[in-house]
Amino acid sequence: MSSTTLHVTELSGSRREMGEAHGLAHGELIQRSIEVYDRLFFDFVGLSWQQARREVGRFERMIERGFPEILDEMEGIARGAGVELADILTLNCRSEISLTRASGGCSAFALARGGTQWLAQNWDWRADQLHNVVALDIRGEQAAPLVSIGEAGMVAKIGMNAAGIGVCLNAIRSRICGEGLPIHVALRKILECPDMASAVAVATRDRVCAPAHFLIASAAVDGERGQAVGLEVHPGEPGRLAPERGVVTHTNHLYARGEACQVEDFPRPDSRPRLAQLDQLLRERLPADAVVDEARLFEILSDHQGAPLSICRHHNPDQPPEERMETLFSVVMNLDARRLTLRHGKPCGNEDTLSLSLTD
């Protein structure tokens, strides 16, 4: 799928104004997303959409405690799309509802080379969500401008802000769900943070109610080099992954030592081989003295070793239909240049990119 089908949606103003503009621009895609998750919830946890909606009250209370202002934006999205707030809450809490049994196959890495801090990842999910991907350029009244690539009706997923903070996401399949911010709400709060310390504090102070991996990085500030950390978040103290030779990598299993070891996860068999392949590719192709650009990082994300369960994931007819995951988009972020480059669909053989800059 070419990125020419994906346009940037600009949102500005108050929370409610931004939400309403989001809902108006993507009302049809939001309705389609609801249909996709209606099927997914039934496939994985045996819930109808209406039953899932009844579960979100407890998550709304968590949001009210940790990030209440985002509820105004969700209400705006609902109004613009012609749905109810409960529908938008359910979309934004879909990980907490479904990840007890469903997880994607995302591969993510942070890379520091030549004084530049990079973030990159493939987002793998069910193919029926491909056309519901949206690119949001958010310039609200309460935070620095940010860009987020995610799903229609959801407040954030993968992205960066004008302060040079970026975040990637890896799904973790686990039965744990406690107190804290829902995953996608926490991602938006991180994207509104002015610095690395406050971004990390979302995981360590606010906490996240279900396990996931957040790969957070920052651009150079005041002569100090950029930073990166992998945080295996959950309701307790997150596990931390520090860079090794400027690199942090992650797929879909927990492996940080410390508190996160107490969390039980249920990764798919391909998660560890993908991580090993990602580490090998970065070590061999992009050593410490390598010259790095977006094209070289998309080459890493296009790797097919172990196909069809590879870093670049394609249709696998041998899996049950409800288990089939494919790469739906790839993102490379140059945090120092405040530039995000997107390939909508699989990165291999797809040189048509969409570039978003926050330096204007």
TrEMBL record:
InterPro entries reported for this sequence: C45_proenzyme-like, Peptidase_C45, Peptidase_C45_hydrolase
Highest taxon, organism lineage: Bacteria
The UniProt GO MF terms for this protein read: acyltransferase activity
Say yes or no: keyword Protease present: no
Q: Where is the Peptidase C45 hydrolase domain?
A: 114-347
Which Gene3D superfamilies does the UniProt record give?
Answer: 1.10.10.2120, Penicillin V Acylase, Chain A
Question: What NCBIfam families does the record tag this protein with?
Answer: C45_proenzyme
Name the chain's protein. Isopenicillin-N N-acyltransferase like protein
Instruction: Cite the source lineage.
Output: Bacteria, Pseudomonadati, Pseudomonadota, Gammaproteobacteria, Oceanospirillales
